[in-house]
Amino acid sequence: MKAIGPFHHIVRKVVNWLEYKFIFSSSMRATVELVNSASSQKRENILAFMTVRNELSKLSFCLQHHRSLGVKEFFIVDNGSIDGTYEYLLEQSDVTLFRTNESYRNAHYGITWVNFLIHKYAQGRWALFIDADELLYFDGMEHEDAIQKLVHRLEKKQQTYFYAPMVDLYAFDDLRISEVSELEPKYRELNNACHDISSYKSGEKLANELFTLKGGPRSRLLEDQAVAPNLVKFPLIKVVSKSIYIGSSHEFYPPRREVHTDYGWLVHLKLGNNAHEHHSDPEIEKEHYGIGAERRVIASGAVNKLVTGDPQAINFNGRKSLNLLDEVIKGRI
């Protein structure tokens, strides 16, 4: 594991502080149009926040999964969808829907919209920030109101945020998953997905005493790219004054130093068999990180070659599969 020098940490702190000041100011000035409010709004609800554009094929699974965890309210910004996403969200009684046609890139990849909404609606509350192709997994998720029980557990341990690195699945039929209406058949389809084991490694140690996750199938997919994908995420956080995300849910500021015994995973469904179709619009791709470099690789169809890349890849078996990676973020592998 390559050591990180003190100078690197100082530079990173300065850059993060400057970025924080700029994004905080931009977030407080952000404007999104309120279209429709959720029918039930309660103070005890944990709120989920998302930005979407043409995510109709993924939204049903994402919403159903997080509803099954006990999420009862979603705050979603639609950024000019034309595939039926906007109309679908209008029909969801637990969604407070906003829209904007502003540049996703100029909004710091949607972060300013999310920060604005989190500060307006979730001060002093727990907020979940996810993408439409992410599913949150954690210990105890099979129980009723699991996410509420998770939050109570975190508060007892004085954790104010939740580390859940991304784990990419691949070689699964995402089209079939979108066509199935019930949640359990979607999970059964997902059990056909592949899941890397040997290509993940521990990275830098974090302030919560856990380690970053490196590698995985996207690193193999992007081996010729200069920047490896960032798998660090903090999707669940207790919102306090002036605390904002500065890099999607990859990073928030000001940082909080606390030891974590509870952590989870974000199962990432970006690399399905039909991923190339979802990433084939150059006008959308140039709005993303690195002007869509990673998404262009996916659009080329390279994803379908991943299955031969790791001889130790196994089929996904929910939390049991993710348990195999626990030692990695504990820095033992």
Automatic annotation (TrEMBL):
One of its GO terms (molecular function) is transferase activity. InterPro entries: Nucleotide-diphossugar_trans (IPR029044). Keywords: Transferase. It holds the Pfam family Glyco_tranf_2_4. This is Glycosyltransferase involved in cell wall biosynthesis.
